[in-house]
Write a structure and sequence with these properties.
mainly alpha, elongated, Anthrone_oxy
């Protein structure tokens, strides 16, 4: 049985976007400044400046990848529902996880982002211990998004596998 070009393209786009999103997410989770929040030898302002420097480019890239992964997963799930239910279900899970990432970001992480982003505001309102606490909170919440992303990537990989190995 020949693969449908649209379903195949959507599957590959979903897998690639999920892999890209997860790669950036793991990098941010393991890179500085967030894991250094407890290192008192690092000046708080340096940690905050580093976070602010990485935030906008990472947000722009991850937002696009999340939307692309979610949309492509949804298209693949919808398009494959009649001919490969295993792949369709896997891409449905991937789409749901990407929707979860988007919702969690808007509902939980954005309030922390807003408090950290405005120069001078976090420092004045939160003080040094408060800024470190916010960075710790951001890192923990980003870990939740990273877990959602890992499930989305695994589901997209499994869906692609199910699509390609079906005889």
């Amino acid at each position: 049985m020949a693969l449908d070009a649209t379903g195949s393209a959507a599957a590959i786009a979903a897998l690639a976007a999920a892999a890209g999103w997860e790669s950036v997410s793991i990098y941010l989770l393991s890179g500085d400044p967030v894991p250094l929040y407890a290192d008192m030898s690092q000046p708080t302002q340096v940690l905050l400046d580093d976070w602010r420097r990485m935030f906008t480019p990472a947000m722009n890239l991850q937002a696009r990848l999340c939307v692309l992964a979610g949309a492509a997963s949804g298209v693949a799930a919808f398009g494959l529902r009649g001919e490969n239910q295993t792949a369709a279900a896997a891409f449905g899970v991937a789409a749901a996880c990407n929707a979860g990432i988007f919702w969690y970001t808007l509902a939980k992480i954005m309030p922390v982002n807003r408090r950290l982003l405005t120069p001078g505001q976090a420092e004045k309102a939160e003080g040094e211990p408060g800024v470190r606490s916010l960075l710790k909170q951001w890192g923990e919440m980003h870990g939740v998004r990273t877990a959602f992303g890992a499930v989305a990537l695994a589901a997209a990989a499994y869906g692609t596998h199910a699509l390609l190995t079906r005889s």
